[in-house]
Please model this.
Amino acid sequence: MGALGYVMQVPEEEKYLNTKKELEAMLVGYLGGRAAEELVFDTVTTGAANDIEQATKVARAMITQYGMSDKFGLMGLATQENQYLSGRTVLNCGDDTATEVVSFTTDCICGFPGETQADFEESCEFLKKIGFLKVHVFPYSRRSGTPAYDFPEQVHEREKQERSRVMNGIAEEVRREVLAAYVGTEDDVLLETPLSGTLFTGYTRLYIPVVVSAPGHESGQIVHVTLGEYDGERVRAALC
Model:
């Protein structure tokens, strides 16, 4: 099986330690392919799946294992099991702390030329595996003047729409599971759009969308809230 392309991180010399700046540079390298797709082709593909997975591992390790988080400081929030067995990382902190570690959002395009049913199913499994807080799903739009317009194996419009429908359903299921872990936790919220005299929408530090009644407050202010249930659009929160 061949690869369409990949990035390999090769050290210039033998070394056993990495600085925070080096790890941040690795993240930039992993996400370079996705950025190139957006800049050159004005779209994104499933090709960045492994890069995103590797970037996720590095970012999570920086926070949970290497003490490189400004919020958690020098705390070991995770340990790695025997690398010759599963090798997986296990959080050794409470549920409240675990839900504050990190959250991810992403964009997914369905039906890019050449995408097979197996490719699509692999992308769906990847969404479940990572546990994205939010996924923006959209079908590939064929536009004249772009390189992808002349790519072979164009996916039929009906199939693109059906794959988008299926992936949106999976993304919503994953979103509900992720947000369920935050029920009862506390966080700060930046008040944004007023829906009424006291009701506001806003986002937490982990980009969780909330709606909260905050009498006496204004847009642009930060309030401390307790997160509640997800209503299908936003998490209902209450002032602490």
